[in-house]
Amino acid sequence: MTSLNPYLSFRDNARAAMEFYQSVFGGDLTVSTFGDFPGQNDDASEDHLVMHAQLTTPDGMVLMGSDTPSRMGFTEPAGFSVSVSGDDEAELEKYWNGLVEGGTPIVPFEVPPWGGRFGMLTDKFGVDWMVALNAADQP
């Protein structure tokens, strides 16, 4: 089995972001810091930063992330969106409402010309999201 999973990079706030995503999507969150693996970071003051975090939801979604140490270049996320889609309107609306809290809606979560529901937002951590309710099959 092969899977494709978003891996988000942050600067000093990966733990807060991943805990936020856990509050939106539920599931199990594992977090490892640079301090958990001595020798992986040259700056001991950054040992508390997240080397790897993984959120696995009950329905199988996997979202990963980490902090970028100061010795490495970092650019705010740009040019991509994380997309969440499905057939359960109530669940997707819950995700939308959670993700948009403290963020900025770009396209409201409404009915687009192609049916279903669709919205775009930037969350409070600067990550762009698309939430889509699949259009019902037409007979």
UniProtKB/TrEMBL annotation:
Start and end residues of each PhnB-like domain: 4-131
InterPro entries the UniProt entry points to: Glyas_Bleomycin-R_OHBP_Dase (IPR029068), PhnB-like (IPR028973)
Q: Read off the CDD domains from this record.
A: PhnB_like
Instruction: Write down the SUPFAM superfamilies for this protein, in alphabetical order.
Output: Glyoxalase/Bleomycin resistance protein/Dihydroxybiphenyl dioxygenase
Against Pfam families, the record matches this protein to: 3-dmu-9_3-mt
- Entries under Gene3D superfamilies matching the protein: 2,3-Dihydroxybiphenyl 1,2-Dioxygenase, domain 1 (3.10.180.10)
Designated name of the protein: VOC family protein
Tell me the name of the encoding gene. Answer: phnB
